[in-house]
Amino acid sequence: EAWFTKTPGLKVVYPAFPFDAKGLLLAAIDDPKPVIYFEHKYLYRSISEDIADEEYTIEIGKARVVQEGANASIITYGLGVHWALAYAKDHPEAAVEIIDLRSLQPWDKEAVEASAKKTGRVMILHEDTLTSGFGGEIAAHLAEHCFSYLDAPIMRCASLDTSIPMNKALEDQFLANARLEETMERLLKY
After folding, report:
1. In angstroms, rounded to a whole number, what is the distance separating the alpha carbons of residues 3 and 84?
2. How many helices (DSSP H) and strands (DSSP E) are in the chain?
3. In which element (H, E) is residue 2 found?
4. CA dist., res. 77 & res. 16, Å (int)
5. What are the tens digits of pLDDT across the range 119-170?
6. Is the pLDDT of residue 46 over 90?
7. Cβ–Cβ contacts within 10 Å for residue 100, how many?
8. CA distances (Å), origin 133, targets 28, 95, 113
9. Among 41, 84, 134, 141, which is most exposed with the fewest C-beta within 10 angstroms?
10. Under a CB-based contact definition with an 8 Å cutoff, are residues 179 and 155 in contact?
11. Main-chain phi, psi angles of 12, to 5 degrees
């Protein structure tokens, strides 16, 4: 996704839930500008929800607070939202706020800033590799615009800077989810 978010004039959406998938797809079709629509293949058969038959759109560029929290913010999208929700379920004492970007270009700077100011601790979680991943753009923005509100360094949790292994056990170690708990522990202890 980082390859496409730097293309001027191109919009990029990345839903994490079926409701958002329909609303963002219809918004992309209606948009007069080009929109790249990312879907994570793992989510096709792993989640479901009832969707209204009526047409509706979700505004491109608007994030959603998936879970309110007070101790730290997880800024994520796509499959990362489900990783964050699983972490929050297993660690309710962490009281994390989860922001689902839904759109990567444009992305909702106001929602991300509001969450960072509220919690004072931010982790950016994405499946892309750490180096040159989209999370670096969010981290740079927060460092420039929210530095005085932060109580800890902005942390990124991403996949390893290698090619994706063809072995399931190695792939599980490659993905960001393998380091989520450890990264969040460092952030909360800072």
Report:
1. 24
2. 7, 8
3. helix 2-5
4. 6
5. 999 999 999 999 999 999 999 999 999 999 999 999 999 999 999 999 999 9
6. no
7. 27
8. 23, 26, 19
9. 41
10. no
11. -130, 125
- Six token digits for residue 97: 């706020």
Q: DSSP per residue over 134-150, as a string?
A: THHHHHHHHHHHSGGG-
What digits encode the pLDDT tens for the residues 11-24?
999 999 999 999 99
Q: In Å, how far are 37, 88, 173, 174 from 14, measured between CA atoms? A: 6, 21, 23, 21
Query: In the numeric block, which tokens belong to residue 37?
Result: 């629509």
- From CA 33, how far away is CA 10, in angstroms rounded? 7
Neighbour tally for 1: CB within 10 Å:
18
First to last CA, the chain: 30
Residues comprising the chain, all counted: 190
